[in-house]
């Protein structure tokens, strides 16, 4: 039975089935905690623990999903292209806001961890928490952080943005779709784009822009800021 439960085909089917079921639950309830990523993560972790399945075994089965996620990222360029003229006319506020967002994302995570008494390696691991995972891991390795901690904080940042980011922005003074999209993409990377897609293509275009700019700027600024921040 245990061997059946950890077969690649079973793990792959389970991943897709749990996520699909989670989407149905969210569409019917609309509750903020009925997030497909959150539900899928909790259920799959419980499944792996229950049957004693190593993460490496699950990762091997899930590589098929990972493979198709890479070309799927190209889809994000579609709304970006459709709104390119509007984006190009706003290059100055976009650049300034992205610089502010990138620096804020770097500083907040690091200083909060330092204030709580975390070790330096842990503090460095939180520098790229708002960057999409592949770039975040590379940044962490280059500055001496711990990639597993970075991966976990990237997921947490994405979940927080996906669960509450849109409502927090709408409840304040931020009302423009472009501003909301940029904020979600900058703070919550791909998950911010996902929640933006649910609202409009224009918002998703700016969220995609936020993800790209934040990744590039964080990678460039991190080595320059690290000596100044005295971490």
UniProtKB/TrEMBL annotation:
Key word Disulfide bond present: no
Keywords: Membrane, Transmembrane, Transmembrane helix
Keyword Glycosyltransferase: no
Alphabetical list of InterPro entries matching this protein: CidB/LrgB
Membrane topology summary: Multi-pass membrane protein
Compartment list: Membrane
One of the record's GO cellular component terms: membrane
Name of one Pfam family that matches: LrgB
Main localization of the protein described in the UniProt heading: membrane
Transmembrane segments: 6-25, 37-55, 93-113, 149-166, 178-197, 203-226
Protein name as annotated: LrgB family protein
UniProt source species: Neisseria animalis
